[in-house]
Amino acid sequence: MKNIFQRLIYALIFCLLFSACSTVKGPPTLANNHWELQDVKGVDIYLAFNIKHGIFIEFNDSTKKFNGYTGCNNFFGEYTVDGNKLHFSDMSTTRMACPQMKSENLYLQAISQVDNYRIDGKKLLLYKGEEVLATYKR
């Protein structure tokens, strides 16, 4: 009985070690990550507009939909990717009035112009041409 119990323990440890080693994480991808905003056009809008809550965007690879939070309202829509080209469509937001409406408008205006992206380490950069519109961290 002791021998069977020992074998079960060893098998369990082996399975745990094997599964931990086999879950190799590669570089971040656009989809299926939580991207928190760092700045818009080089402006730290958390400081500039005294925002307390994390502004973010997420992309769902299987549905080709995105969603996020502006610091005041939620936003969502659809996206397409072709190489490093990125296009947002059917973007909508909830409509709550908040003190941070200027920062929200700046942010939403910027991302509505996005036409390409780049991932650099744990950073996501959204561009219009060669101009960085928004920078995020994973």
Automatic annotation (TrEMBL):
Keywords in alphabetical order: Signal, Stress response
Record-linked InterPro entries: DUF306_Meta_HslJ, HslJ-like_sf, Hsp_HslJ-like
Transmembrane regions: none
Coiled coil: none
PROSITE patterns: PROKAR_LIPOPROTEIN
Domain DUF306: 29-134
Keyword GTP-binding: no
Signal peptide: 1-26
One Pfam family per UniProt: META
PANTHER family for the chain: HEAT SHOCK PROTEIN HSLJ
Protein name: Heat shock protein HslJ
Lineage of the species this protein comes from: Bacteria, Pseudomonadati, Bacteroidota, Sphingobacteriia, Sphingobacteriales
